[in-house]
């Protein structure tokens, strides 16, 4: 594994599989009364959030705390960032505080790369979502969730549906799922497919009904209206009718097919409430799995000695507090 996790493309198939198997070991911790390991005791992890977030921030916080790291939450609102401090000065401050890892979410695509590569700090940088670019730990938790339900992802068909244009989740998933051998189809209206998508190595379709029966996984995306500066579709009703997942469409899925959504979801727009709450939906599991996957990432980036899985297993069996 590299020092930073900036893009899903940073991960080889071996890296990704190591994270998934480590996450599987760590996941069992969630079922224990004491959900804590000493693996990262004495290490400091900073959550640096320049954009609103609920589940990603608390997921990283829970992951770091379950590994006994010290966690500092730093959000742009209410900090000197709102007084105009630059990313560089923030990085120097974090460095001076001795951060071992910085988990960064930023509205600007590329901000975590700048933080990692400008030479301002020695910490590991983990991209927790940058603009419309990437969100590698979301892709990892999605792959982990699929893997737990379907086994090996080789040849599995994954449909990613909706606002692909603004989705860092879609981009990171497209990269990681291909690394893991899955076949990805992006389904969206032409206005919500990014320029250059033909170079992503995925299939595209405008026809959700044609893609659903062939899919092993259907991942719905939120329509990111806060990032839209123009009209990408005529009306919400029209969007839902063509690209929303409702009970009728769900009935065309194969028995084993799972339905996913990274959250936050807009019920009634991209997904109806009956689908979101159905047996096929693994949306709540994605949240649980997110903590295990982020524990695995933090452990492997910060503490993991080779062989990391063996190390994790040792900590799990011997090192409990
Ligand atoms: C996503 C994000 O922030 O990129 N959510 C998440 O991290 N769970 C997707 C979204 O905002 O729609």
List keywords for this structure.
321 residues, alpha/beta, Rossmann fold, 2 domains, five-stranded parallel beta sheet, four-stranded parallel beta sheet, 12 helices, disordered C terminus, binds N-carbamoyl-L-aspartate, pyrimidine biosynthesis
Largest sheet: 5 strands, parallel
Helical/strand content category: alpha/beta
What is the count of structural domains? 2
Report the span from N to C terminus: 28 Å
CATH topology (fold) name of the largest domain: Rossmann fold
User: Low-confidence parts lasting 5 or more residues at pLDDT below 50?
Assistant: 305-311, 317-321
Helix content: 25-40%
Any overview of this molecule?
By secondary structure, the protein is an alpha/beta fold. It has two domains: about 10-135 and about 285-320, 3-Layer(aba) Sandwich (Rossmann fold), CATH 3.40.50.1370; about 135-285, Rossmann fold (3-Layer(aba) Sandwich). About 40% of the residues lie in helices and about 15% in strands. The chain has twelve helices and nine strands. The protein has helices at about 15-25, 55-65, 85-95, 110-115, 135-150, 170-180, 210, 235-245, 245-250, 275, 285-305, 310-320; strands at about 45-50, 70-75, 100-105, 125-130, 155-160, 185, 205, 215-220, 260. The strands form two sheets. The chain has a five-stranded parallel beta sheet, with helices on one face. It is globular and about 55 Å long. Mean pLDDT is about 90; it is low at about 305-310 and about 315-320. The chain binds N-carbamoyl-L-aspartate. N-carbamoyl-L-aspartate binds near residues 55, 56, 129, 138 and 262. Catalyzes the condensation of carbamoyl phosphate and aspartate to form carbamoyl aspartate and inorganic phosphate, the committed step in the de novo pyrimidine nucleotide biosynthesis pathway. This is Aspartate carbamoyltransferase. It is an enzyme of class 2 (transferase).
């Amino acid at each position: 594994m590299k020092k930073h996790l900036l893009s899903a493309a940073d991960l080889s198939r071996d890296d990704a599989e190591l994270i998934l198997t480590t996450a599987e070991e760590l996941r069992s911790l969630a079922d224990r009364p004491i959900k804590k390991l000493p693996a990262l005791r004495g290490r400091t992890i900073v959550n640096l959030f320049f954009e609103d977030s609920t589940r990603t921030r608390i997921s990283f916080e829970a992951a770091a705390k379950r590994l006994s790291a010290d966690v500092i939450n730093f959000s742009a609102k209410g900090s000197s960032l709102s007084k105009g401090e630059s990313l560089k000065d923030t990085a120097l401050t974090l460095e001076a505080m001795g951060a071992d890892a910085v988990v960064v979410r930023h509205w600007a695509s590329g901000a975590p790369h700048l933080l990692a590569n400008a030479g301002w700090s020695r910490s590991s940088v983990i991209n927790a979502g940058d603009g419309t670019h990437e969100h590698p730990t979301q892709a990892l938790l999605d792959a982990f969730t699929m893997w737990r339900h379907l086994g090996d992802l080789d040849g599995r068909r994954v449909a990613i549906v909706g606002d692909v244009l603004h989705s860092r989740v879609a981009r990171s998933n497209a990269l990681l799922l291909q690394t893991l051998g899955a076949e990805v189809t992006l389904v969206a209206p032409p206005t919500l497919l990014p320029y250059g998508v033909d170079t992503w190595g995925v299939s595209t379709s405008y026809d959700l009904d044609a893609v659903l029966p062939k899919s092993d996984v259907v991942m719905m995306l939120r329509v990111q209206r806060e990032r839209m500066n123009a009209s990408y579709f005529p009306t919400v009703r029209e969007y839902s009718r063509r690209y929303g997942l409702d009970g009728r469409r769900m009935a065309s899925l194969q028995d084993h097919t799972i339905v996913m959504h990274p959250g936050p979801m807009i019920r009634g727009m991209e997904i109806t409430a009956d689908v979101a709450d159905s047996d096929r939906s693994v949306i709540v599991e994605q949240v649980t799995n997110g903590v295990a996957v982020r524990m695995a990432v933090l452990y492997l980036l910060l503490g993991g000695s080779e062989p990391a899985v063996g190390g994790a297993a040792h900590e799990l069996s011997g090192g409990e507090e």
